[in-house]
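Researcher: I'd like a structural prediction for the single chain below. Treat it as a standalone chain; there are no partners to consider.
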Amino acid sequence: MLPWFQNKFPLYLAPMAGVTDTVFRRLCKEQGADVVVTEFVSAEGIFRRNHRTQCYLDFDESERPLGVQLFGGDPAHLGEAARMVIDWKQPDFIDINFGCPVNKVVCKNGGSSLLRDCPLLESVARAVVQAAAPVPVTAKIRIGWSHDTINATTTARILENAGVQAIAVHGRTKEQGYSGEADWDVIADVVQSVQIPVIGNGDLTGAMDVKRRTESGVRGVMIGRGAMSSPWIFREIKTFFATGKIPPAPSLEEQWDFIIRHCRLAVEHPRRGRETPTMHAMRARLMAYSRGMPGARDLREKFSSVSSLTELEEIAAEHLKASSADSADLCRLLPA
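Model: Treating it as a single chain, here is the predicted structure.
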């Protein structure tokens, strides 16, 4: 069994393209994430030694246990890519992406497209397991291509028989994308269909969501969009499971400290280069952080044009001052 499942209920940070780079993974580790996975990486890009693709493989030792997630539709190339990654980076495991719903991945016969072709899915899984040995292989799937073709239990058994050691299941179909609700009943069915650990994924936004979903029998959970706006979700879950109490949310000042630190680490990372393009790339991340903050609409407007750390610090100072004034006004209106 994978060591992080031994007497533990691991919290995974879900791999998300353009989000879960080495900087964000390290920050989530600090907040309590147990296992992290790289952004999904093209097996063809690795196979062809594409420089940009290799950059996605960067990670710090503090991120372990860490997996490299590969996608593609050619079993031989995926197997060779797994060997190359292990030789270059020595990750703790290889993860295969059978869940991405994005059309530019699906049209290349990658991601969730293989959910419609179980023989090819099996060939890919066996090729990667054989090539990666003794490094363990895991996989991420969706519950099916569409509502009419939900086949997660079949897919999970195929992957288990191919030697995959754990499966993460996102409770939506490819056609759903990220809309609608995740179907945790199907995830529970997957748990019953295999002996290997199943990690549940979908609509987890806080500790109570995770507590409720443990009833499905999953051996761990994977958190994606919830971590994008609130990376401290991992600390909340850990504290709740240890004490039975939900800790207070970080103060607005603490949230801003975290956001500014994230941007500063991104700017300072040697792969990033200059400050302005890095801050442009961080705009989408800042938009996610604004969710739930007071005056979020105005913040998003300002974030849409931010180009430097100095600008961000000025926005933070102005926002904190305005929020403090609003709180003082509210206190004066309350009865003594």
